[in-house]
């Protein structure tokens, strides 16, 4: 399947936002740690935070799910239902099918958007948990985290 430019743009925006959130957390040595020691400590705390939260920012998903198949399936179901209603009521089957397709596609699209928002909220919670865990680890190693 071909990805639409809008989906690509939204995915890139989400990826940039996630990178900006992670980039905002800085660790400053409070006990005279060397740059080499800080690098080791940050890596150890990253690994610990991933183990504690189950969230790895290096493998974070942008949540760019394909919307079109869901909408097309909804439209097909709506068209079939509309055609059936048109046949039962002795009305125009094609008009009823087109109306059903539009309503079915719209309903499926709305449901898909709700699911995307829910997934984004869950990912934001994972990011927050990861950042708290990483900060706690670094603070325990005598770093100031901002």
Q: What would you say about this model in short?
A:
The protein is mainly alpha-helical and 146 residues long.
What this model shows, in words?
With 146 residues, this protein is mainly alpha-helical. It has one domain (5-145). Helix content is 73%, strand content 4%. It has 4 helices and 2 strands; from the N terminus they run H-E-H-H-H-E. The protein is rod-shaped, with a radius of gyration of 24 Å. Residues 19-23 have low confidence and may be disordered.
Please give a handful of descriptors for the protein shown.
73% helix, mainly alpha, single chain, 2 strands, 146 residues, two-stranded antiparallel ribbon
Strand segment tally: 2
- Order of helix and strand elements from N to C terminus: HEHHHE
How many discrete domains? 1
Binned, the helix content reads over 70%
Largest sheet: 2 strands, antiparallel
Instruction: Categorize the overall geometry.
Output: rod-shaped
Give the DSSP E fraction (strand runs of 2 or more residues).
under 5%
**What is the arithmetic mean of pLDDT?**
73
Distance between the termini: 43 Å
Rg over CA atoms, rounded to whole Å, is 24 Å
Structural class: mainly alpha
Number of helices: 4
Please give the structural blueprint:
Elements: H1 5-23, E1 27-29, H2 35-53, H3 68-88, H4 93-140, E2 143-145
Antiparallel strand pairs: 1-2
């Amino acid at each position: 399947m071909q990805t639409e430019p809008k989906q690509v743009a939204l995915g890139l925006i989400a990826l940039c936002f996630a990178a900006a959130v992670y980039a905002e957390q800085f660790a400053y040595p409070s006990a005279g740690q060397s740059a080499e020691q800080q690098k080791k400590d940050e890596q150890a705390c990253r690994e610990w935070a991933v183990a504690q939260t189950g969230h790895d920012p290096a493998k974070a998903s942008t949540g760019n799910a394909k919307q079109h198949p869901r909408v097309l399936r909804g439209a097909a179901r709506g068209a079939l239902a509309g055609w059936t209603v048109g046949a039962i009521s002795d009305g125009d089957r094609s008009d009823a099918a087109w109306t059903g397709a539009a309503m079915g596609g719209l309903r499926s699209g709305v449901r898909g958007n709700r699911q995307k928002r829910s997934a984004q909220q869950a990912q934001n919670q994972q990011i927050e948990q990861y950042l708290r865990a990483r900060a706690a680890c670094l603070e325990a190693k005598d770093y100031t985290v901002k």
